[in-house]
Amino acid sequence: MNREETFDKLFKKKGGIYNTPDPFFFSFFEFFDVHIDAMRKMYPKLPPIYCGLINSDFLNASAGKGDDCEYYIGFNTGLLKAVNDLFLKIAASKSRQEFDTKISLIREGDGVKYDDRSSISIFGINQEDHNIMVCHNTLINKFLLYHEVCHVLRGHIDFFKNNFNAIISEGDYEKDKSKVNIQQTLEMDADSFAVNCLIGQFREQTFSRKPYWTENCGDINSFMYHFGYSLNAFFKLFGYYESSSDIHHRLHHPIPSVRMSMILGNVSTIFEREKRPNAEVALNYLIQGGIKADEDLCEVSYMERTYKEFAELLSSTNNKAHVEGIMDNWKELRLKLLPYAYATLPLSE
Ligand SMILES: [Zn+2]
Description:
Layout: H1 3-10, H2 26-42, E1 49-54, E2 61-65, E3 71-76, H3 77-94, E4 105-108, E5 111-114, H4 127-153, H5 156-164, E6 168-169, H6 177-203, H7 211-217, H8 220-236, H9 256-274, H10 279-300, H11 310-314, H12 317-337
Parallel strand pairs: 1-3
Antiparallel strand pairs: 2-3, 2-6, 4-5
Helix pairs in contact: 3-4, 3-10, 4-6, 4-7, 4-8, 6-9, 6-12, 8-9, 8-10, 9-10, 9-12
The structure holds zinc ion.
């Protein structure tokens, strides 16, 4: 079996390989390769990774080890198209375009599917909104890739395969509570790794040298604002905003506000370590970005604003307890991951 066949077999249940020549995805392959190679310069033990597309409209991505013992990452076509459409429609609604700016998402079973029949053209979006859209899109595509690479680098995939004989899938659900706790803790680690990579690139001024980037995200406060904005908008595509329902304990990823709380804690720790002056101000920009994403998402989706305000959710008691539970799990899980990891694992606080 060649790489493509192994990929197809590994992710068959998720939709199998997508190998239609679709111009929308052409640039992604180069994007994946360039950034994985760049990661390997920082983490020389990172094994080879084959990155490809899964033929599915569900918002999901998966990572696993194939029959050839190589690592594979698969992004669902629906996920990448939905991310693009999300920021495109936000840009279109800001440019006050007349076309339908609602993103079409369909809940099917426990998952969310993207329906691209409502997709719009980029024509008519003003330059300023267009540039911000590119920043948000790039931030999320990088975040997604680094998150998946972390599942390989820090031994999550091997641990999961050896203990549950399973691949890691982002948008799946569990009945087994102990497995959910493990999965959510691995996801926290992957989010935290991606956040560290992105902030590192900002600090070293290597995120991008393109003018759209320096104009919009060149200083720490603007970067934090757009970071909070794009992450919260992206997390919310998957739905489930409140922590009251039992879905909270079945999702592989915690609900968006818990995920954002952990990211906020993570960024705060990085700033303390860097002894960054005015860290509070920068963190507040991250929160303000998240709040604005809440508002803008209502303009471009059919999601009703029945959930609590972002800032309130962020500091809710339920959220805090959930975050503490995950951080406690990390202490134990970290030791179990050590034999599989290709890089050092962060110590718990
Ligand atoms: Zn993940």
